[in-house]
Amino acid sequence: MVIRESFGDRLLKIIIYICLTLFSIYCLVPFISVISGSFSSESAILRDGYSILPNEFTLEAYKLIFQDATIYKAYGVTVFVTVVGTVLAMLVTCALAYPLSLKTVKYRNAVNFYVYFTLLFHGGLVSTYILISKYLDMQNSIWVLIIPALVSPFNMFLMRNFFKSIDESLAESAKMDGANDVYILFRIILPIALPAIATVGLFYALAFWNKWFEALLFISDVDLFPLQYLIIRIQSNAEFANQLAAQISLPNYVTPTYTTRLATTVVTIGPIVLLYPFLQKYFVKGLLVGAVKG
Q1: Distance (Å, rounded) from C-alpha 93 to C-alpha 46?
Q2: Is-annotated flag, keyword Transmembrane helix (predicted)?
Q3: Which residue in 12, 145, 240, 267 has the most C-beta neighbors within 10 A?
C-alpha cells in the first residue's frame, strides 16, 4: 500500500530542506572565507576584508609556514602523538570503563567517585609540573604529550554508560561457555561498542592533535615540537618581526600576520576535517546511546 503525501506534507518537507540548505551554507561561508583569506595578500585583507574568492592571490602565508623543514617534523610528531596516544588512551579507558559498568565488581562506586572527583578538582599547574619534570623525568620526551592524557574522566564515563547499555546476558552467556573477562571485553563487548569507541576515539584524537601547552612547559628540543606549538611560535615571530620593523622605521617590511593565522588554521584543521566524515555516523550514534543510560 502506497501512502501519498499531502500537499501540506510536501510543502513542509520543501521548507525544511530549504532551511537546512541555507543553514549549511551559513556554516560553510566562514570556513570558505578562511581558506580564501589564506590565499589572499595581507594588504587585500586589510583593505577589502574577507571574501569568498581570494583577493590578490598569493602563497606568501604558506611560504612563511613551510619555509623551514621543522614544520614537517612537527607534523610527524603530532601524527605520532595523535595515533599512538588515541590507541593507548582507548585501551586504558575501555579497561577502566568496562569493570566499572559491571554490578558484580566490588568497590566500583568508590572508584567511580574517585574518577568523578578529578572532574571537580585538579592538582594544579605547579604540582603537575613537579610530578612530570622531577618524579617522572619526562622533560624533552615525546611521551610527555601522551602519558599524562591517557585517561579523561568525561570519556571514561561516556564509555562506561555505553557498556552499561549493553545487555548483560551476552557476557553471562560467554562466561557459561568458559570465556574470561578479557576475552569477553575484546571479542564481544568492544565490537558492539564500535559507535562509542569511534566517538570517544575522536574526542581523544582531537585532544592529542591540538596539544601545545605541554610542549611549552616541558619541551625545549625543536625536533619534538608538536604542530600546534610550532604554529604558535611562527605567528609570534611574525608579529614580533612587524613590531621590530615599525620601531626601526622599515615601512616596506611587512610580514603577513592575518593571512598567516588563516593559513595555520587551514594547515592544522585539515586532517581532522577529512577524518570526521568517516566517523560521523558512529559519532552521532555513540553520543545518543552513551547518554541514555547513566
Answers
A1: 47
A2: yes
A3: 145
